[in-house]
Amino acid sequence: MGKRLITQRRGRGGSQYRSPSHRHVDDVKLPLKSLKEGVVVDLIHAPGRTCPLSVIDFEGQIDYQLAAEGIKVGQKIDVSEGKVAAGNIMTLAQIPEGTPIHNIEGIPGDGGKYVKTAGSSATLVSRGAKVVVEMPSGALKEFNPECRAAVGIIAGGGRTDKPLAKSGKKYHTLQSRSKAYFKVSGVSMNAVDHPHGGGSHRHVGGPSTIGRNAWPGQKVGRLSPQKKATKKRK
How many helical (H) and strand (E) elements, i.e. helices and strands, does the chain have? Predict the structure, then answer.
C-alpha cells in the first residue's frame, strides 16, 4: 500500500505541521505606548522560538520581549523615546541611520511583525516621509515613521555554530518548532508511493509538468507552468 504524498499530508495538518502554541510563552508584541519604563527581571528560554526572551517588569505589569544581544538582568528598558541602547523601543523616526533594529511594526501599533529570528537584525538606512530599512535579506523596505522597533541585534545568533552531530538531535530540534523532518525526493520512491518513482532509475522518466486541475494524488512537480514567451516577428 502506497503512502500519502507529502503535499497531501501537509494539507491535512496534524501535530507535525501545527505550531506548538501550547508551548509558546507569549505572543511577544511591543508594549503599549502608555508604558514608559521597565526593568529586565529574567532571561528565559522559549520553546518554539530560536531566541531567548527577556521578562520585563513595567511597573508591576509583566511583559515578554525578544532578548537583544548585550541585555542583562536589572537593565532598564525605555519605551518613551529614550536613548539608543540595546533593548530600548523607539519609533523609526527617532532612530539614527545605521542603527541595527528588530521586531519592526508593519503598521503603527501592530506590535511588531518583521525581523524576529535569533541573530538577525535590520538596518535603518534613511529617514523622511518614509523610513527606508534594509532587511536581513538585503531588500530595502519602506515603513511609516510612526512604526516602532526594538534597538539591537536579537540574541541567540550562535545557535547554528555547534553541529547537531546526530540525526536524532535534529529530529527533536525540528519537532520543537513543528517543522517537517527530512524529505525524500519523489524519484527515489517506488512507483506506488509517488508519480515520479519507480523504473529502476533516478529521473522522472516523463514530463514533470502537471495541470492545475489534476487530481490531488497526481499534483506534483511543476504546477501549470507558463508557456515560453516568444517574440513576434514584425
Answer: 2, 12
Going by C-beta distance under 8 Å and a sequence separation of 6 or more, which residues neighbour residue 114? 103, 104, 105, 106, 122, 135, 141
Cell of 71: 541585555
Is 17 within 8 Å of 178 (Cβ atoms)? yes
Task: Report whether 124 contacts 101 (CB < 8 A).
Answer: yes
Question: Hey, what's the cell of 62?
Answer: 509583566
CA dist., res. 68 & res. 90, Å (int): 14
The separation between CA 150 and the C-alpha centre of its own chain, rounded to angstroms, equals 17
> If you search the block for the grid coordinates 495538518, which residue do you land on?
13
Low-confidence ranges of the chain (pLDDT < 70): 1-2, 16, 229, 231-234
Alpha-carbon gap, residue 150 to 152, rounded angstroms: 7
Task: Report d(CA 127, CA 133) in Å as an integer.
Answer: 9
CA distances to 120, 131, 153, 202 from 206, rounded to whole Å, are: 43, 50, 49, 12
Fill in the amino acid letter for 150: A
Q: Provide φ and ψ at 223, rounded to 5°.
A: -85, 115
